[in-house]
Amino acid sequence: MGMWIGRGRRARRCYGFDEIALVPGNVTINPDEVDVAFKLGKLKIDIPIIAAAMDGVVDVRFAIEMGKLGGVAVLNLDGVQTRYKNPDEPLREIVKASKEKATRLVQKLYEPPIKEKLISQRIQEIKKAGVLAAVSTIPQRAEDVGAIAQEAGADIFVVQSTVTTVRHISSKYKVLDFKKLCNKMKIPVIIGNCVTYETALELMEAGPAGILVGIGPGAACTTRGVLGIGVPQVTATVDVAAARDFYFKKAGKYVPIITDGGMSVGGDICKAFASGADAVMIGSTFARAKEAPGKGFHWGMATPHANLPRGTRIKVGTAGKLSEILFGPATLDDGSQNLIGALRTSMGNLGAKDIKEMQFTEVIIAPAIKTEGKIFQKAQSVGMGK
C-alpha cells in the first residue's frame, strides 16, 4: 500500500474534498423527503451541521439562534466568553486590530484567568432560551469544567485538542482519564480530534458519545504549516468511519463521527457524509453570519497560545443571516449558503433517504471535478472560479 517517496520509504496517498466526486445513484428521491437528522446519545438533532467552538463564531446569542433553527452551536469555555463579564469589548478589539498586531492582541486578551461563575452563567443564558447548550474545553480542564458545566445544565460536553489520544504521556501535569470522565458525566461527551483508525478505536473504547475528526484543515488554522502534521479530511473520515463500524461490530455501540473543519461549501459537506461522517462541524462559513460575534473575522482555536500560535485571524466577511446560510434562500453563487438545501438535494440525487444511506455513496477520485468545463467561471471569478 502506498508509493515510494525515496529509498526504503513508502507513503500513503491521501485525499481531500477537492480530489473526489460523488456518483449519482440509480434511484432519485424528492429532497424534501430525505432525513438529515442525526443522533448523539439519546439526543436527536435536526441539523447535522454543528457550529465550531470558536470565539469569532459562537457566543450566547449565536448559540440560541442556532438552537432555534434546530441545530447546535458549541460555546468555547476557554475563550473570551468565560474570561470577561462583557466579552463584546475584547471581541471589538480583535476585530479592529491590524493584521500585523492581531495575533499578539489575541494572545494578550486571552491571558486573564477563566472565571467559574461565567461558565455557569453562559450555559444558563443559553438554557433560558429553551435550546440545547453545548460547550467545549481542553483536556487539561475537562474534569473541573465538566462538573461545572453539567451542574449548570449543559446538554453536550466537548473535550477538544489539536491531537487527542487516550495514551497521553506527561510528567509535568495530571493526564486526563477519558474513560473515567465519560463514565462520570451524565451528558453526552464528544472527544477530539483524531485522524487515524487506531487512535479513533482507542478513543471509542473510552466511552464517548461522539468523535471529532480533523487535524489542521480549518480556514483559520495553521497547524499544518507550523507542525507539519495532518491528514486530508476525506481519508481521515474514511479511516475513522472504519474504526466506528468495527467498534460497532465488536461492542454493539455506535459512536457517531463528526468531520471537523475543511468544509466551506455545500459540496464539501456532502462529500464528508459520503466519506462516512454522521455529522460535520464547521467554523468559517458560520463566521460569515450576521449573528456571528466576530463580525466577519474568524480566528483559529490555537491562535491565543502564548508560545506557539497555530492559528491566525482571517477576514471572511459577512454574507447573510444564519438562517440563510443554513436554509436559504441563497443569494450567493459559491455554495456557501443554504447548506441544508444543498445536502438534501445531493442526497436526493444520490438516492440516499438518510445520512446512513449516504455513507454508502460511490466515491471516485476526480482531480478535475472543480475545473472541468469551468474556464469562464475561472476567468470571471464567479461561481466555482472564485
Plain-language structure description:
With 386 residues, the protein is of the alpha/beta class. It has a single domain (17-368), classed as Alpha-Beta Barrel (TIM Barrel), CATH 3.20.20.70. Helix content is 33%, strand content 15%. It is built from 15 helices and 16 strands. The chain has helices at residues 60-68, 88-96, 102-109, 116-127, 142-152, 178-184, 197-205, 223-226, 233-251, 266-274, 284-287, 322-327, 339-350, 355-358, 375-380; strands at residues 3-6, 9-11, 20-22, 38-40, 43-45, 49-51, 74-76, 134-137, 156-160, 189-194, 210-213, 257-260, 279-282, 297-299, 313-315, 363-365. The strands form 5 sheets. Strands 6-13-12-11-10-9-8-7 form an 8-stranded parallel beta sheet. It has a two-stranded antiparallel sheet with strand order 1-2. Helix 5 (142-152) links the parallel strand 8 (134-137) and strand 9 (156-160). Helix 2 packs antiparallel against helix 3 and helix 10 (266-274) crosses helix 13. The protein is globular. The chain starts with a strand and ends in a 6-residue tail after the last helix. The mean pLDDT is 95.
| Net shape | globular
What number of structural domains do the residues give? 1
Uncertain segments of ≥5 residues (pLDDT<50)?
A: none
Taking all residues together, what is the mean pLDDT?
95
Head-to-tail CA distance between termini: 36 Å
- Our estimate of the beta-strand percent is 15-25%
CATH superfamily: Aldolase class I
Using the CA coordinates, give the radius of gyration: 20 Å
CATH fold name, please?
Answer: TIM Barrel
> In CATH's first tier, which class applies?
Alpha Beta
